[in-house]
Structures are given as structure tokens and as C-alpha cells.
């Protein structure tokens, strides 16, 4: 029996029917590969951007931390003696002036200050003819400031007035509220009494001697000497 001449043809037709399926599979595989490559590339780009952003933020954080200064130093309270650094009465020369209508007030006050060791200069009415309602004005220059502070302990409530004079003399100008020179015992106690004072880089020290000088004091039991 002979083989028909058209026997292999069905096989060729079968292979041709399979070719489009293989092509579709290859296309799908290629698309998957391309998608994966694109996705991986996008992740790489995002990672590089994050690293760049982090490196740029670091200097800012460093600069922010560098602007934080050191903590301020505290202000502490120390105990001082008001009379420390002040001259003795024998080192102070004062003129005594009367700014009131009470006759002989300058003379009697000058006598009381002299008894306590002060050197007395001129005794007269106020050369400025000023009305003083308080206890007194202690007029001084820069070199006589410590002398005026000492006198303020003897005339509690007196006001220190810097008039810019060049010498160390002090003008004691008596006002309407003045009564008498403070007793030496009270002055000594005030000069030696410990007083709190703020000190340190965190605060400004106060002038405790002049503050203590404004404290009220009991007047002398005996009246001032008459003129």
C-alpha cells in the first residue's frame, strides 16, 4: 500500500497554528521585563533624592544647634558691710548750709558733725537759695561720692546730688524735714550691719551704703545746740 503524497501537510499546518501563541508569550515576557527594569530604575532615583535631602538637612540642624548659646550665669546674693570702703569722718570736709527759715540751723548742725569728727568748712545759708522739702541734699562730685555716702548715715533720708564739682568736699544743705544729726551709736550699727546684695554676671549690684543711709533713724534725745 502506498503512502499518500499529501501526508506531512497536516503537521506543517499545526506548527503554523502554534506560532502566534509563542509570539504573544514573548511579548508578555518582554513587557514584564521592561516594567521590572523601569520600576527598579525609579526606586534607585528615589533613593538618591532621599540621600541628597538628608545631606542638605544636616547643615541646617548643625547650624540650629550651634546658635544655642551657653546658659546664663546666675545672680547670687552676697552679704556686704555698708561701711566697707567709706572714709572716716576725719577724712571728710563738708560745708553746712541752711535751706530753711530756721535761724541757726546750719551752725548747730555743723557743731554736731564736728563733734563726730568731720572737718567743717563754710557755714551759711544755701548759696543756691533752693527750697528743699526733704531732710537734706548732699552735693558732691565724683571724688566726693564716698564722703557723701558716709554723711548720709549721719543724716538719714538725705539725698545725694552729684553736681560735678572737681574736689572732694561735700555741701550739706539742710531741708525742711531735717531734725538733728543721728547718734553715733546708731550710725556705727548701720555701718556694721550686714546687708544682702545681688552680685554676679547675671545681675547688677546695688549701692547698698546709700540705700542703708535712707533708712529712718531715731533722733537724738537731746536737741541740737542753739546758735
Explain what you see.
By secondary structure, the protein is of the alpha/beta class. It folds into two domains: about 15-50; about 80-215, no CATH class. Helices cover about 40% and strands about 15% of the residues. The chain has five helices and seven strands; from the N terminus they run H-E-E-H-E-E-H-E-E-H-E-H. It has helices spanning about 10-65, 105-115, 145-155, 185-190, 210-215; strands at about 75-80, 95-100, 120-125, 135-140, 160, 170-175, 195-200. A five-stranded mixed beta sheet has the order 3-2-6-4-5, covered by helices on one side. Helix 2 (about 105-115) links the parallel strand 2 and strand 3.
Distance linking N and C termini: 176 Å
Overall geometric form? rod-shaped
Characterize the main sheet. Answer: 5 strands, mixed
Per DSSP, the total helix count is: 5
Give, in order, the helices and strands.
HEEHEEHEEHEH
Compute the CA-based radius of gyration.
50 Å
Number of domains: 2
Amino acid at each position: 500500500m502506498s503512502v499518500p503524497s499529501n501526508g506531512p501537510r497536516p503537521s506543517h499546518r499545526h506548527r503554523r497554528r502554534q506560532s502566534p501563541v509563542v509570539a504573544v508569550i514573548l511579548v508578555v515576557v518582554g513587557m514584564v521585563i521592561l516594567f521590572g527594569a523601569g520600576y527598579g530604575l525609579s526606586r534607585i532615583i528615589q533613593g538618591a533624592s532621599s540621600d541628597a535631602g538628608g545631606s542638605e538637612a544636616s547643615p541646617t540642624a548643625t547650624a540650629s544647634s550651634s546658635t544655642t548659646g551657653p546658659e546664663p550665669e546666675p545672680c547670687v546674693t552676697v552679704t556686704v558691710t555698708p561701711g566697707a570702703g567709706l572714709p572716716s569722718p576725719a577724712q571728710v570736709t563738708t560745708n553746712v548750709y541752711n535751706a530753711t527759715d530756721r535761724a541757726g540751723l546750719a551752725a548747730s548742725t555743723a557743731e554736731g558733725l564736728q563733734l563726730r569728727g568731720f572737718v567743717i568748712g563754710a557755714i551759711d545759708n544755701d548759696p543756691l537759695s533752693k527750697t528743699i522739702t526733704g531732710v537734706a541734699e548732699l552735693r558732691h562730685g565724683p571724688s566726693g561720692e564716698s564722703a557723701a555716702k558716709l554723711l548720709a548715715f549721719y543724716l538719714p533720708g538725705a539725698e545725694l546730688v552729684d553736681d560735678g564739682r572737681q574736689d572732694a568736699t561735700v555741701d550739706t544743705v539742710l531741708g525742711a524735714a531735717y531734725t538733728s544729726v543721728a547718734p553715733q551709736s546708731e550710725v556705727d550699727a548701720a555701718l556694721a550691719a550686714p546687708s544682702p546684695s545681688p552680685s554676679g554676671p547675671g545681675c547688677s549690684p546695688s549701692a547698698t551704703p546709700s540705700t542703708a543711709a535712707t533708712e529712718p533713724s531715731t533722733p537724738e534725745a537731746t536737741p541740737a545746740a542753739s546758735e
